Amino acid sequence: MQELKLSDWLPTTNKEVKIRGWDALDVILFSGDAYVDHPSFGPAVIGRILESYGLRVAVVPQPNVNDNLQDFVKLGAPKLFFGVTGGCMDPMISNYNANKKRRDKDAYTPNGDIGFRPDYATTVYSKILKEKWPDVPVLIGGIEASLRRVTHYDYWSDKLMPTILESSKADMLVYGMGEQPLREVVRLLQKGVPFNSITTIKQTAVLLDKDAKIPKNSNWEDVEIVSHQKCLKDKKAYAANFKIIEQESNKLAARRIFQKVGEKTLMINPPYPTMTEKEIDASFDLPYTRLPHPKYNKRGPIPAFEMIKFSINIHRGCFGGCSFCTISAHQGKFIASRSQESVLREVDTVANMPDFKGYLSDIGGPSANMYKMKGKIQSICDKCVAPSCISPVICSNLDTSHKPLTKLYQAVDSHPKVKKSFIGSGIRHDMLVPEFNKNANAKELDDYTEEVMTKHVSGRLKVAPEHTSDPVLKLMRKPSFTYFHKFKERFDKINIKKNLKLQLIPYFISNHPACEAEDMANLAAETKDMGFQLEQVQGFTPTPMTVATVIYYSGYHPYTLKKIKTPKTRKEKDEQHRFFFWYKKENKAWIKSTLNKLGRQDLLKVLLPENDKWRKNKPGKPKHTFNDAVPFNQRKNKAKFRSKKKQR
């Protein structure tokens, strides 16, 4: 691998601009993350895409908002527009945990240091730029802008907020993955079309002034949702809005959405079709250095980069549609897969990095085993409005073949410099259970599971049942916990057959809408009975653009408008959480008292039997943990642990 020069990265300073021989810039990008020139980091992707259109692009990573704001003026004004993103995660998730306490690390900053990213970074950066450069257009994008494009509940301020276009004063919002809309924005700007006249590009949103004419487009149908002001007064109306928003976000032929915001009108144009293989390959094949900018060499490693340094992203999108997850709202439910050739080119690039030791940390995506999956008959998908392709059952039109993925793994492993490739992303275990995935070939599913367990796991396989309660799982858009038991049976069978001694690591969520203390007690009892001892757990965090968050704030399910109870007080949340830690001495008296009050002596006998010989390192039942990560879910002896309330 040839030695890199400073000019191999997009410029971040005037000195670097001059090294390239430029006297002006076309686009300047501002980001809440440190600048890592890698295809897993959105600002780098957007910068490289714009560069591929012949534009002169610079990046201002983590500008200082606490001084004289020099970072916002040091590069001058761009000829076309400023681009603004809060980073690869919503800044409020980066800055705070589920209990609204400040995190002590920021994974997207050198050395994990905190304090380099303001709360609501997109809004903060955009407002400063509009004050400093009122005549230069500001285009916002990335996950923060994407998920806050319409009236949304903000958990950290505990308020219903209007579209981020209103609070940020930006001129345009690009939602979802930005390659397709930006291509058209740039094409029109290069033709001389004024920025404020560009209002009909797919996958963009603008805020129209009171007297502005509604742009016409004969190819689109329109739908108007309840105004922001009405949402502030009527939680049920706010909830009803979300059904329309979610369905239109996941349709291939979506309607244009309008919403009144004060005297202005929010206009959200329909999304682009799913990226083709050629389009997504082109994005990943851009000339990334795959490294952090040299300016950080003395500041320490960037944790998020270290985690994915030797990983390969093979697709985008997720058709799971989980009610607590934002992936489909941002990336879409339809899968955009890279070609095997593109993946192998990247593998070769990584394998030839000077510090590569032969191990790829992940060959995956949002859900690792959705590569190349799509509808068998496209015309059926064209008309579909369902938010999930696998809930409550797997769609009969969905091709869930794992053969292309197995073939890809084998091709990656055949590279002479690759000793082992791991699957670090979460696997949808339910799709590997023939009783649930009824249209799939059972042998093919077992072959894939065996391939993963024997060649792509280092001691642990992560899966996400999320809960054990069927009513909670139904609301989550997850299958019954029964299928986790069935998957574990197959897992154990392969473990014994191949003498692997692997651990199965299940992820669970507490405090989710519809979850009650009794459900958490049931979860604790059932997972204990299976031999799991959970040590780190995920509390539900309401994030914009999810069904679960709408329920959390409004109390209504957006599809049925029926009331749903949600744990909201600190006391309720802490008590649900405590059931995870039934084995801790300080929790035992409380658990005993609580279960006696609930009349659940059956659960008490399982969790705290008088002569409990259950041990954390019981032979044949290894200790299982899971990390406090971004949430991504299940059950046996169903009747044994079913609540008395449900029996009634």
TrEMBL record:
Domain Radical SAM core as annotated: residue spans: 304-584
Cofactor note: Binds 1 [4Fe-4S] cluster. The cluster is coordinated with 3 cysteines and an exchangeable S-adenosyl-L-methionine.
Segments for region (Disordered): 613-648
Entry keyword set: 4Fe-4S, Iron, Iron-sulfur, Metal-binding, S-adenosyl-L-methionine
Binding site for [4Fe-4S] cluster: C318, C322, C325
Pfam families (UniProt xref): DUF3362, Radical_SAM_N
Signal peptide location: none
SUPFAM superfamilies, A to Z: Radical SAM enzymes
Cofactor(s), names only, from the UniProt record: [4Fe-4S] cluster
Basic residues bias spans: 615-624, 635-648
Sequence similarity: Belongs to the UPF0313 family.
NCBIfam families: SAM_YgiQ (TIGR03904)
HAMAP family (alphabetical): UPF0313
Name of protein: YgiQ family radical SAM protein
Organism from which the protein derives: Flavivirga algicola
